[in-house]
Structure of Thymidylate synthase:
Amino acid sequence: MQVYLDLVQRVLENGVRKENRTGTDTLSNFAEFYKVDLAEGFPLLTTKKVYFKSVIMELLWYLRGDDHVRWLRDEKDVHIWDAWADDDGYVGPIYPVLWRRFPFLKASDGSSYPKLGESRDKDWVYDEFDQVQRAIDMLKNNPNSRRIVVSTWHPGLLDEMRLPPCHIMYIFNVSDGKLNCHLTQRSGDIALGIPFNLACYSALTMAIAKEVGLKPGEFAHTIVDAHIYENHIEGLQEQLKREPRKLPTLTIANKPIDELQYEDFTLEGYDPDPAIKFPVAV
Ligand SMILES: Nc1nc(=O)c2c([nH]1)NC[C@@H]1CN(c3ccc(C(=O)N[C@@H](CCC(=O)O)C(=O)O)cc3)CN21
Ligand SMILES: O=c1ccn([C@H]2C[C@H](O)[C@@H](COP(=O)(O)O)O2)c(=O)[nH]1
């Protein structure tokens, strides 16, 4: 995928060296952007092997609403989130919870915020909001809305999370019968995270498009701190020497997203170059 290689090239050429909490320095560009047309194939990198099963399992895990990795780690044998879980598998209220069970408070009269001049001293009870279902309902009932937003930045919960969300907001936008998705990411690990994030959100967009009766459109991605860890430079330079190959195709079964399983995602024509090992900065 040329747009990915161009991103790598820009950060290698212009990146500013930065220290960060992981102890492994990065080369970083501020505010990178690219987009891909999902009609041109499923955007799974071919210049290294990307583990499709892990990508889809991660997406299905996000959709489950869990606050632990037990399903992903123990049942599905996918270990990409293990480093951020405790011994019980607990990760706190991160993506799955924020997507499907976003916590908020509600008063017994049904309101979630006091009216002007009204006392804050009410009986507040815990409630949860399913942002993905809301997006699907809006796409079905009001597809031209510009408010089809899923937001995962919850300042009140950051201390409870093992890792604050990196992809903090996505917006669906319908144009010409096609479903587009724009993802805003505050921090992006270009070698490891970005190939996963790009494929994950593209698969999500395709699955939701199917459910709401639209064609898949474009996936667009803004990355605010777009970085390459110094121990990933060599592997990415190797990728730059490789010629991008034809993209595979992805077919998704016609089911509501809550019923989707890994077997419902059929990838065809994926013929990547060999995998490249990149150590993950924890
Ligand atoms: N530094 C860092 N980079 C990330 O990309 C990242 C984090 N931290 N923390 C949270 C999640 C976890 N993500 C990860 C973590 C590990 C892999 C990884 O190890 N990928 C390997 C093998 C995948 C597999 O075995 O299935 C790869 O080659 O892509 C990918 C994404 C993305 N995120
Ligand atoms: O989906 C993800 C999750 C995480 N990342 C990367 C981006 C950063 O390299 C680290 C997070 O560190 P912060 O200090 O919290 O920014 O994980 C990603 O690329 N994609």
The chain has one domain: 2-268. Residues 2-268 form a domain with the Thymidylate Synthase; Chain A fold (CATH 3.30.572.10).
